[in-house]
Write a structure and sequence with these properties.
There is one protein chain. The chain has helices spanning about 5-30, 35-65, 75-95, 120-140, 145-160, 160-180, 185-210, and strands spanning about 105-110, 115. A hairpin with a 6-residue loop joins strand 1 and strand 2 (about 115). The chain is globular. The chain has a single domain (about 5-210), classed as Four Helix Bundle (Hemerythrin (Met), subunit A), CATH 1.20.120. The protein is an all-alpha fold. The longest helix is centred in the N-terminal third of the chain and has 29 residues, at about 35-65. Strands 1-2 form a two-stranded antiparallel ribbon.
């Protein structure tokens, strides 16, 4: 067993335990008794936490005075779990509010056998969530050595930077659902915490970037 393989086994072992604890913690903490809703919240918040950690690693390296490599196993491994749990959130979450998943994105026209794209807050929340899921899927597909070899470091890194757009989309999706569901102050505070910390580190990292 190579040192790198052993290190990745350790990474995934820690991530299995950490993700399970986060899922169970959010599931237990969120008020309500609807199982789909509770698991939707647990997977959603756990995915945000993991994505936030991936966005903290780079700035943290710069703060320590270290060079940021194109890719690290740790960041990729965390990204894998973020992607898998994020996709699980989509699968569960899309069953919470409507019996028909299309109604998350379209609205029936009264008195007519027709549908229009939703232009309300609920629709926009779901559009951003859907695009964020596509971004997470892309990042998941990039999280391997084969993709890095085939795409070459520069192109791979450019695609991987979609993680920033994914974070913004998830942020918008989550904020809109905070408003739609009128979530309590404690949940809003937790959401603010897990989003503000990565943004703060990103700002610090941006200022620490070496000048061209």
């Amino acid at each position: 067993m190579t040192p790198r393989f052993r290190s990745r086994i350790e990474n995934h072992s820690i991530l299995v335990i950490g993700s399970a604890l986060a899922l169970l913690s959010f599931y237990s903490f969120v008020p309500g008794d609807d199982q789909k809703y509770l698991w939707s919240m647990a997977t959603g918040y756990t995915s945000i936490v993991l994505l936030g950690i991936t966005l903290v690693i780079g700035p943290l390296n710069l703060i320590k005075g270290n060079h940021n490599p194109v890719s690290t196993d740790l960041r990729r491994d965390i990204g894998i779990w973020c992607g898998m749990i994020g996709i699980a959130h989509v699968v569960v979450g899309i069953q919470v509010h409507m019996g028909n998943i299309w109604l998350y994105f379209v609205k029936a026209v009264d008195g007519a056998d027709a549908y229009l794209l939703r232009r309300d807050l609920f629709g926009f929340a779901n559009y951003t969530g859907l695009i964020a899921a596509v971004v997470l899927t892309l990042l998941l597909l990039l999280s391997n050595d084969l993709s890095l070899r085939l795409l070459k470091p520069k192109r791979w890194k450019n695609l991987q930077r979609w993680s920033y757009a994914g974070f913004v989309l998830i942020l918008a999706h989550s904020v809109m659902y905070q408003v739609i569901e009128k979530r309590n102050a404690v949940i809003i505070s937790i959401f603010a915490l897990v989003t503000i910390i990565p943004m703060a580190f990103q700002m610090i990292g941006f200022r620490r970037q070496p000048k061209a």
